[in-house]
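queue> holo job accepted (nicotinamide-adenine-dinucleotide)
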Amino acid sequence: MLLNLTILPGDGIGPEVTEQAVLVLQAAAGAFGHQLQLRHKNIGGAALAVAEDPLPADTVQACLSSSAVLMGAVGNPAFDHYPNHLRPEAGLLRLRRELGAYANLRPAICFPALEDCSPLRSDLVRGTDIMIVRELLGGLYFGEPRSIAGAPGSRVATNTMTYGEPAIERITGVAFELAEKRRKKVLSVDKANVLECSRLWREVVIRCAKDYPGVQLSHMYVDSAAMSLVQRPKDFDVVLTENMFGDILSDQAGGVVGSLGLLASASIGGPVGLYEPVHGSAPDIAGKGIANPLGAILSAALLLRHSFQLEREAACIENAVSAVLNQGSRTADIARSGQSRIATSEMGRNVVEAVKASQAKQKSA
Ligand code: NAD
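queue> job finished
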């Protein structure tokens, strides 16, 4: 199969982790006889530096004409004083909209080798396997009006949370279909005791759930969900929620399973899928070569699964990640005291070797 991809390394640690994800994709493509066609484009601060636009037209065009997009991260403190629409993060929000990517899947899995990385007791976190399904094109991130207005000293800031029934229906469908292939549980997270958006959300989710009689639906307010996530993470299966609640809960889930650097995401629903690690550009560690590339590498696995239906190839990468963790490979964020810490590039190389080894083993079997 020809895998025609646009690569958006972005800012900070984005290029460092994306480079490793691409090497792993190349290894997997080679092992399974696929051909990769890659185009690298700018987004975020990297684009602003050369084009004064965080999402240049040629980046959008390249993304829309490829079969899938792999991104690193955006965000650069040098642009923090820019107006909102010119900040690096605005480029990513626009890209999600251009791609029609309304469903953001964020798996949070506790790898057995990393049980002791969680700040929670091993017996609490062992077996955690959560799929957060976050609505990605609505809510506060896109709602209008939005502004900071008025004279200094008496300025007023406004954001708007809006959700329409069709947007809730389509993301609910994604969550229930995923749940049917998992443990058949959907937890819908809202704030229906306070917000009108959440009341409509809950009503529509309950209506849509009737189409999936085999899946058990429950509801939680977001504050209570945040507490339960650290008290009993393994009770969670599919978590269905709106844009901002999903953003916050998925970072929390990253903390629960050991590190934000491990979390991958898929943004799907439109004609072209967008795959990126959950973490940001991590300016505090950018350029040091110590970032954990596994979130980016696992995003590449999601890309193969969701954009190309290459389940064996995706599983091969996921198994390779498990294997290197079992062998003791640790970047700084997941190393315990006394464990040696390897660089971003070495972690990537170890996963590449594990992909090649698993394929060689299959061939000889
Ligand atoms: P962040 O995710 O960049 O970093 C949070 C913390 O986690 C930092 O201490 C960082 O060092 C650590 N971390 C993150 N990824 C890591 C990895 N792969 N390996 C090891 N440690 C890792 O979040 P932040 O600091 O709140 O934001 C920094 C910038 O990134 C901001 O400009 C923000 O807007 C942007 N951001 C972008 C995205 C995105 O591109 N999707 C997501 C979140 C934040």
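queue> Residues 344-364 form the longest helix (21 residues).
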